[in-house]
């Protein structure tokens, strides 16, 4: 009797559109020396995103694993989902405690825009144009103004104009060679991370299964994905997948099976398709309630068996397009050599498990330390006197914590190598 072929999901083809960035990169090369530090302190790591080459291969592969019901990427026995904290650290931009999403103003205030971009109100109003169904400033006009500011040595104005061009063309692209009002609004508020993350999910979800062009902040999405992969070796093959799965497991928030109510369909619709529903959603974002002192408990980074079983069923439903492997959470069979006592072998296995758990805790502490350090660094800019001195002391303590965690990580790697040699002897 002929074997029934295993069903697999059809691979969908996506394209990744980016505008020509030569003029912006040429301007960014003028940001050097002390001005480069000033630019990064004020606007984050925009220059890295601007100059990053977007390789479509890893993005094309990642999108095949998108799980539309769970709004994440489902792999064989774990899930991945970009978070606000990860985007904040990758961009080196803190998340402000304010309403995260903003309405594009119906009436344009040229005074606010002129002040933010170091332009005159007349210059902004004279060059304000429409492109398609959006309004804003042409890129060539902003490039010309930034060039003039650089010649004059007005680096504060130049930095602002370069940053808004990166916002409009790289972070929040809409029309070709155009910086629209939505990008300008986010730039003025100075809290881009929530909108970037929302755009990422929206772009992927809206194109899932349909293919076509994705125009969200591709450099940031790629940078997030590559941060979870090994720095060398073949991409997405069996060996590299085995190497980085344990690390990913410690970063994902799905280490236990979620309740059905927690993954129910969320609000997702085009702005023009249902404006009546959009209005109450917008009002809700302006009345966010925060539970003070809520303790969720220590993160347990080892996946639970019911979670693994649940993910396996999700994989079967999604018909993921890759060959199945043995679950990575299962322990290898106990094989003893005559020269090694069984109790020593079991002790080595338990020590290895303890070290893995310690490594996961270390990674989480290092992650929290970096986030706190980033927030403190931005607080320092606006503080003076005694308060600034106190915050500097806190920053030093976080740097000491980061050094300690790095030392623990090196010790873990040393013990891991020793344990591997021990197993070879077995």
From TrEMBL:
UniProt entry keywords in alphabetical sequence: Coiled coil
Coiled-coil intervals = 391-425
Judging by the UniProt lineage, the source's domain of life is Eukaryota
Ranges where the DUF7745 domain occurs: 28-262
* Protein name according to UniProt: DUF7745 domain-containing protein
Organism from which the protein derives? Pisum sativum
């Amino acid at each position: 009797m002929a074997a029934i072929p295993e069903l697999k999901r059809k691979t969908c083809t996506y394209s990744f559109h980016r505008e020509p960035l030569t003029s912006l990169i040429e301007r960014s090369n003028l940001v050097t020396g002390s001005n480069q530090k000033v630019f990064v302190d004020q606007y984050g790591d925009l220059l890295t995103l601007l100059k990053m080459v977007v390789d479509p291969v890893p993005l094309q592969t990642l999108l095949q694993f998108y799980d539309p019901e769970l709004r994440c990427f489902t792999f064989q026995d774990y899930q991945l989902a970009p978070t606000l904290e990860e985007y904040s650290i990758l961009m080196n931009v803190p998340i402000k405690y304010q309403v995260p999403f903003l309405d594009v103003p119906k009436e344009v205030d040229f005074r606010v825009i002129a002040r933010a971009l170091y332009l005159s109100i007349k210059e902004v109003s004279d060059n304000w144009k429409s492109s398609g169904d959006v309004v804003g400033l042409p890129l060539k006009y902003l490039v010309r103004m930034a060039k003039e500011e650089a010649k004059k040595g007005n680096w504060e104005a130049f930095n602002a104009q370069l940053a808004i061009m990166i916002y409009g063309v790289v972070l929040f692209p809409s029309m070709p060679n155009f910086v629209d009002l939505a990008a300008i609004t986010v730039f003025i508020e100075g809290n881009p991370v929530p909108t970037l993350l929302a755009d990422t999910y929206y772009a992927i979800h809206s194109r899932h299964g349909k293919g076509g062009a994705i125009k969200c902040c591709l450099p940031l999405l790629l940078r997030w994905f590559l941060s979870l992969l090994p720095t060398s070796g073949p991409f997405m093959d069996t060996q590299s997948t085995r190497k980085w799965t344990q690390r990913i497991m410690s970063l994902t928030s799905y280490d236990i099976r979620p309740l059905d109510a927690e993954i129910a369909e969320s609000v997702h619709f085009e702005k023009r398709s249902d404006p009546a529903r959009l209005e109450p959603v917008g009002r809700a974002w302006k009345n966010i309630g925060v539970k003070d002192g809520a303790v969720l408990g220590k993160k347990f980074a080892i996946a639970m068996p019911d979670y693994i079983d649940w993910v396996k069923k999700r994989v079967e439903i999604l018909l993921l397009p890759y060959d199945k492997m043995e679950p990575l959470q299962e322990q290898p069979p106990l094989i003893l050599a005559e020269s090694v006592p069984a109790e020593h072998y079991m002790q080595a296995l338990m020590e290895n498990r303890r070290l893995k758990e310690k490594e996961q805790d270390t990674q989480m502490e290092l992650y929290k330390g970096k986030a706190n350090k980033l927030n403190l660094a931005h607080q320092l800019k606006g503080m003076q006197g005694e308060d600034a001195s106190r915050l500097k002391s806190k920053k030093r303590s976080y740097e000491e914590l980061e050094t300690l965690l790095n030392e623990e990580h090196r010790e873990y790697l040393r013990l891991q190598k020793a344990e591997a040699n021990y197993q070879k002897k077995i």
